[in-house]
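Question (not urgent): is this output format expected?
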Amino acid sequence: MKKFVLLTIGFTQPTPEIMEQWMKWFKSIEEKIIDQVGLRNGKEVTKKGTTKLHMDKEAITGYIVINAENMDEAIQIAQSSPMITSTKIYEVVT
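Got this back:
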């Protein structure tokens, strides 16, 4: 098994229906999940200073670390999510 990080992109105010979809999805992949984290109140730090990151369609809203056989399986898992904008996938290098 390999490890992959799924970065969830895009925020919209969660409704009970949206939360229900996410909870069903998390339940469907729970045996693959190593870690999961939701994100908010972000800042971007550059050499020019610090900027507040807004919770919008461009925001990174969380990450999920999963076990998968390969990138294709990780893609299938991401495609089944109730994503708001997109999911970015990276293979973990150890």
